[in-house]
Amino acid sequence: MLKHIGIIDRNRSSTDILIGIVGRLLNLLPIMIRKILFPFAFTFIFLHFAHAQQRLQSDIKINGFYTTTLDVVLDSLIRQHQLKIIFDRNLAEKKLISERFNDVPLKLALKTLCKSAELNYWVESSGTIYVVRTPDEVRSLQRSELNKQKTASQILKTVTTEKIDTIKRGGKVSQKAFKLTGQVIDQMNGESLPGAVVHIENTTIRATTNADGFFTLNNIPADTCVISTSYVGYLTDRRALTSIDPNKILILSLTITRNNLEEITIKGNKNDGIMSTDKRKVSVLQISPAKLAELPNLGEKDILRSFQLMPGVSASNESSSGAYVRGGTPDQNLVLFDGFTVYQVDHLYGFFSAFNSNAIKDVQLFKGGFSAKYGGRLSSVTEITGKEGTKKDWNVGGDLSLLSANIYFETPVKKNGSFLFAARKSYQGPLYNKIFSQFNKTSEVTTGMGGGRGFGGSAQAATTPTSFFYDLNAKYTVNVGKKDLLALSVYQGDDDTDNSRTISIPSFISTSSSSISPTITDKTTYGNLGSSLKWSRRWNSDLYSNTLVSYSSYHSDRNRTNTIGVTNADGTETEVSTGTIERNRLKDWSFKSDWEYQINNKVKFLFGAYGSAQNVVYKYSQNDTSTLIDQSKDAKTATAYAEGEFSPWEKLQFKGGVRETYYSPTGKTYFEPRFSGTYTLTDRFTLKAATGKFYQFINRVVREDILSGSRDFWVLANGTSIPVGSANHYIAGFSYETDKYLFDVEGYYKTLNGLTEYSQRLTGNLMSSTLEEHFYNGRGYTSGIEFLVQKKAGRYTGWISYTMAIARNQFDDYGASYYSANQDARNEFKSVNMYKLGNWTFSATWIFATGKPYTAPIASYTFDNASGNNQTYLTISGKNTERMPAYHRLDLAATLDLIKIDNRKTGSISFSLFNVYNRTNVWYKEYTIYNNQVITTNVNYLGFTPNITFSLKWK
Amino acid sequence: MEITTTLKKIFFYLVLVIVSSSCKKDGGDNAIADGPVIESYLTNGKAVSLKVYEQKGLLDTAKYGAAISGLAITFNNGVKNITLQESSKGTYTSSETDLIIAGNTCSFNFAYNGKTTSGETSVPSTPVSFTASALQQGVPNPDPDSTSTTFVPVDFSWNNNEKGYYLMVFENHDKTPNRIGSGFGRRNGYQDREEYLGQVSTYKTQSRSFEFSGYYNVYLYHINIEYNNIVNSSSTSSLNLTNPPTNIKNGLGIFTAMSRSSLVLYVYEQ
User: Fold this and answer.
1) Interatomic CA distance for residues B210 and B204, integer angstroms
2) CA gap A328, A883 in Å, rounded
3) Same fold: B35-123 with B128-225+260-269
4) What is the reported pTM?
5) pLDDT for B192-246, tens place per residue?
6) What gap in Å lies between CA B68 and CA B53, rounded to an integer?
7) B228: nearest CA in chain A?
8) Residue A752: beta bridge partners?
9) Which partner from A33, A531, A903, B116 sits 20 to 30 angstroms from A944, CA to CA?
10) Which chain A residues have a beta carbon less than 8 Å from that of B14?
């Protein structure tokens, strides 16, 4: 099967590949991965573990017969083939070699030599080969090399200073200072890295890479500086800018941090953890998808769920992958994937995020006060950048967990392109069933039907669980010339929950009345299809544009109907269906053009425009003929924004922007000013603040029946029953950062207006009824303070965070006073710990959160209706006046990196334990009336759940 | 080391914050639990009847709350005030049966627990042009082993230009009505049946509407929105629980007027 993919790719277009492979893959995924990847997994486990980053690609053939020490052999190879091999001479002298090579490829020869000398080799991107005992030694060898360079750079640094002095005195800035444009890429696969920080050491010159990994630095004093590049989850790269041609694009390649590589002390800030916060940005979190596997997980490496471990993002929402950021709800969080909006961010009742982490390169969460570049949501923005696929060599990989199977394929396409395809599908594994049964407690119902004629009989309701979710990602990227880049990205994710059952009446009581068995259809399908075509252009080193057209659609179909067969007098059989059929469709066509103009290191302008046309359809019908609601609403949005990033003097940086949006249903324009700034008091101490106004034009309303599969239901604001939401953010904080530690405090206050809640009331009877839609409008505020202490580097990394937060709402329908919003969690404490030992990474996370508020009855009453039948009602003292018991849980994980003998990581095995001490965390309470009493039942979140995940790469 | 001191400071600060912000229950209005429950349906041509109960504790196994007796309840029908008499414990009635006049506003009030409990409702107009397509309804035997015949529904219609809310009640004349078919699988006793129709002007019977044969009074009630609201409210999860709607001040339940027309329908097994 794996070979098959390669063949398809060579002969057919990428679209064909998609269509052709998808169907087969999805069906075969679980079996295939089990059959193919498991043997590999076990093979690799027993291989020698060492370290590596780069495949050795060389055509050199080795000849000769050696019976000598290893140092002599290596020296001879260096001499004969102009290779750069670094080794410990003292060690190599002691290793005797007796080998004959006859046209043996270099790779194989090295392998043989290392095997007989009980050593390993490591290949750097530059082609330098290190021969070492353990991976640790690579660093010490590198360090000794660096020391040589350091001596040189010390001298150069002195020269630089002199030059600056000369410049200042002589005023000949233009002669000496130069401009540098570069791109930061992943060394392994050549993918660009957005959001990496590039910094000229000992200066304040600094830039963040754009969406395609490009950066421009102006006024670099001389070509003898040290440029340092850092990116979350990657080793910080430092290199001397010697003999740089400023007219060429400087490629800076970074390598993923791995175990054992911590001995080297890198000057300056370092972050090889999973999370990074840029002290020059306010309320921004970045996580490294590459490191996700090391965190405990519930079945899947989960991008969005890992955000829940960060300060400011609520952690006690097991049933939602959507982010509750700073008291906001998930629909107030804009989720962008390669530029298009994703409306359905989770799978399987919210337990898993809709994104396959194997297809994701970078994720950033803007917790508030975000740039004028983003809009349309009240609370936060999650920007996800998909992987482009390797630019070096094709590869196939996959993951297999107790919940799902996942496979991806990436390949360079011709010289300038790359293609990535990733597919994931759940299977009916133990974990899936556990979660599924949490929501569908009764999968088999026995209905008492007997007794009427003195013999028993029962109607069996047989459920065939066919529920699953899947998602697909495909991305084709091509560089057109040196300045243009085109990328086509497609994402599709769907959930199909089917509880349908057929009631089979035992034959001895079944007669000729109807051959159609009564069936209960209980099927919910929902998902998202999104695609974007992006064109990025570097017009010159100062001007960069990113233009995209995108389409995103969300669908949710619920079908809960009972079908019975009816035989008419003339003997014809017909099916009669009653129940509810709901259909929600959202279509979003968008155009977006973002521009960046860097005037100099002190001033940068961002500006752009955005336009979208949205259509939301909502249809609610009770049977084949009766449609209660049939709405189709359209909205057009047009937006322009401009933002300036200024750094008038070294210590101060601020951004000021404006955003203006026209929204057609209200016919009004909405003006959003934004501001954020940082002030560096000392090298370590930074003050920060942000504020802004935010509008939201589309709302996700949460249905009352929470067990309905998809609870998402999108409606467009109309300015009347559904107002346009608005929010003001006020954020202030400071951070104290040392090389290894970060201490960060941020406080926020957010006002919210135009909040909408929704309920449906069915009036009338089954055959003729009307559905009343009630929209409740209200306002709210959230405020809080977040503390974070992070150890960013070393064998032990992790953080402790504490958030104290308040989220309160006021809806006239619930009363005149403010009450705690459903998502209010007063105290949240999180501890994330990761420890690296050899090829193992151990992690432990502990979460404590104040229980969520809930509404409880204090009394009940019963009275008769007009025809004398009684009905019982519950009285409550107020909305959300009670608190659930505190939520807490401990998760543990151990991850073993699998390393091949030629020193590359080919996969990992993760053992994960969720909710280790089996804490019973209450999700919500259900009140039922039994024997006139009100019985309270707790519906709980998941208890102890173990999981194993295998991740493997072909190469 | 500086980082250690910083960490220590942070730790103690955190402890301080957590301790100082220990959880408090949000304030609610517990007084609501003391409010009386009213049940009163004012119908043209019938005496005024108002039942007053206490609410029940959550674990109380009694069907209804304890009746509240000894109240002095004043009733106004838009024309005059009368004092209702306690005919049985907790049930207060009028002796006159012509108090409910379409278009008028009726109200009541009484003092209870130091507060005045009151309610108000307007009497809807009597349904206009209430007709049926047939006055007989044949119902096929629903047993699985019976030979099915086609069910021909009866269409009821009335005039509803004003988009009023309607309710239909089927009331069998017999004390122990006969079940249609053998009762195979169905053991429930006879109950009058309410159909909440909403803002419609027609109603079509269904085969499942009738399990018992005999003569039925079919009442079409023109009801107020307050009744419609309360019968359609049921929330049972902590995620969506709200107080049921009521039109009683300082109390709970329903005080609503309705006007009705009626037809007689004969239901028989086909």
Assistant:
1) 12
2) 19
3) yes
4) 0.75
5) 888 878 788 888 887 777 888 899 999 999 998 888 777 766 666 666 677 788 8
6) 5
7) A763
8) A727, A780
9) A33
10) 787, 802
